[in-house]
Design brief:
The complex is a heterodimer of chains A (about 525) and B (about 400). Chain A is an alpha/beta fold and about 525 residues long. Chain A contains 19 helices and 24 strands. Chain B is an alpha/beta fold. The chains are: A alpha/beta (about 525), B alpha/beta (about 400).
Amino acid sequence: MTYFRKQYYEVDMKRDLLIVNARCLSMADDAEYDWIAIRGRTISDMGKGEGCKKYISAAVKIIDAKGRTVLPGFIDSHFHIVQAALNSRSLDLSRARSFRDIGTLISEAAKASPGKSIRGIGLDEQNLKEGKFPDRIIIDRYCKDAPVFINSVEYQTSVLNTYALLYYKIPFTLDGIDFDENQVPTGIITHYANVLLRDNVLRSIPNSIRMEAASGFLDSVVEKGITTINAMEGGRLYCDKDAEFIYESKDELAIDVALFYSTTDVAKVKEMQLPRIGGCLYVDGTFGARTSALTFEYNDCPGNMGGLNFTQKEMNQFVLECYINKLQLALYTIGDRAIEQALAAHEYALDKTGNTGLRHRLEHVELPTLDHIRRAKKLGLVFSMSPAYEYVWGGPNKLYHERLGENYKRTNPFNQIIGEGVVICGGSDCDVTPADPLLGIHAAVNHPVEPHRVSIYEAIKMFTCNGAYGIFEEDNKGTLEVGKLADIVILDSDILSVPNEEIKDIKIMTTIKSGQILYNKLK
Amino acid sequence: MNDSMLSINMLGQVNISRNGVSITDKLSTKLMALVCLLVLNADREMNRERISAYLWPDSDEEAARYNLRYNLWMVKKLIPADANGQNFIITTKESCRINKNYLFQCDKMRIDSFDPQGKRPVEELIQLKELFKGDFLEGFYLKNCGEFNEMILFERVVCQTKQIEIMKKLIDLYEELNRWEEELQVLHEMMAIEPYNENFAYRILNICKNTGNRAAAINYYKKFEGKLRRELNISPNNDLKLLYRTLTEEHCETIDEYACRNKAEKRKLTIETHCMKGVDFFWAADAVRALLSKADKKYLLELDSNYILDLCYIQNELLLFYEKTVAKEHREIGTVPPVRIVNAFLKFLSHASAVYQIQINIVDFCDMDPISIEILNHVETGDNIEIIK
């Protein structure tokens, strides 16, 4: 089913909705309510006890929550909607452990849609027993009658079969084409050639396909209780056409989308009248690829401390330009050296302009020091973090530990950040981790390093009111209050009573966006 | 082009024409592939079995031989003998080949005859450049003919490489002839093929600068810088940055302090340096430290990073500041040979003296380590560098 917002507005604009027998956590001043009345797009009343009776006769629908938790609709503060949507329609190779596994999956896909191009995603050479990417000869064994275009897990490498090498426009003279001993391309493409190839391929996807994919994908997002996303679109390894698509089409989507255009082109963003810039503006890289900038060497790669993509001078100039133009800026920072560079640039720009109140954001911020956190607080920065990283990569013998050694104990110190007064808004970085705020809440509450854990209430704030604060929308959403948008989720249990380790298993029963029921499992 | 001639174009979509009229529609894909294969191997005879292996690898021997016979017959039918009575293809029982005496022209053969070392007139290079209508055998893919498809891949690489070589040759020639506009046009075409090529961008900027089109040069740099940042997340290289700086300096005297320094009297800088006999490079390292403490660090770090990193081997403070200020991803500094350290030191000093008048006071000269003494002997003293022992 595809949700188009306009249809709902036309049908249900004036109908009243009543949620009763609920445990409504308003997320404002710790206030709790038993019932919520909704008129049109907004919350018209809330209360405890019998007060709801006066609304029963006018209500078109009454939802009996049966004591379950009712929360503000979740806000996912870091989300790659277009690529996640397109990826959801691609062949997932993340579980492949050998060339044979890849081949089996490709053969099945080719059989299911003969002659159609196959886009594989998530291939990680480190997971393959062969320890390297397959070349075109290998892929040809499984499919030679249609283009096969495989993306590595972080999009740094593409693998093509012979058909695809001949089908797509390949810039063979660019850096990044791998050749065999006969000077014939092997189909493994990296560096500049990969960037250009990806751009060619992604640009060739028509916007109608983007819309179809995004609308379909949002069905699953709504089922997870998400009513607003911060869409990090465009930029390196993604495609500016994605950002332009969201800019033009966001009002047609079922939920609210705040566009973060990952560009350094301030003039362009101003011209588009966007209030913000950035999102995935990579100050450094990733722990996975050992490219995040650290102040120490990678545990599993001595001599490597990762790297920064900007000089301090360049960063200072860019951040200053954002301050001068009063744009909210979101910078992608992971390692402590990247965080330091971003903070230094903010300090420089603030010193030069004195402009405050723009709620600039650092995205991910996985390895901040106490000094970083305190300086961020002084600067009024918001940390947009992905707690589910800890669920996937945190704790002993997982990726953080492998890459950072004992420094894994320093990652994502949520409790310390909140304690110092910095606002954290939570995101999934979908599709790096699943679009599932309850998993994010679970991960923040059950952080593998105990001192970094936060209370359930604080974790919920990350995905509700703090998320709204991160995009200047706290007057409209993020809490359940009269006059605010009726963005509401009903869980299948009382989240405050569920054992911490079972939070991730909580299901969404109902999702309401601006007064419209988009998803409902309750009778 | 002679219209009465057979013309075979393999760059872009395959087109075969006779007397100026395309006969491509009458040819099957396999037949076109056969013609292309023979033309690509025009200087040798091709064994029939070899051709069959390219074009009918899945057929049994008899079927493959029949297919080849049939297609050769079709070629003969569609491409009749030329005015001199010569057949296009010479066949024997065992092999076939293109008849060299047959009058025909082929874009790919013309491209292959280009020797990047040789000298060619502009007109010929332009003609060669114009031959690139698209990729080699664009849109071609023969199902189950792995070897043939591989040959296409190989030739596409060859053709793209040739295309760039021809264009490079042409821009060099234009430059010699001061034909800036035409050079610029070809450079833009080259940038469309290799959009991140900093050498091409440098030349474009330089032409704009030399022809007095400063605004165009600045705009171009900004666009290119934005593209590199957006798509590769990198900055332009130092050469481009410096060229850009000269563009902004020339007309905007107050913008850049270094530009002002070049024009105005250089600032005098006095540094005090110390020696330690038993430690190699001690004095040189101390001179770097002293310069860092007194001079504009950002300027000092504008020296090519390879020199900076070599010098970091003897002066850790430089490395710390490099990471903090420039902080680009840098190569691991392993053992640096003395010759590179010496060279880097001299470059560093020369770079500093470009904007400062430096007086170096050496304390306890008699304790200077032997390597530093040798280095000092190579320091060019004069107006900009004065050594006081």
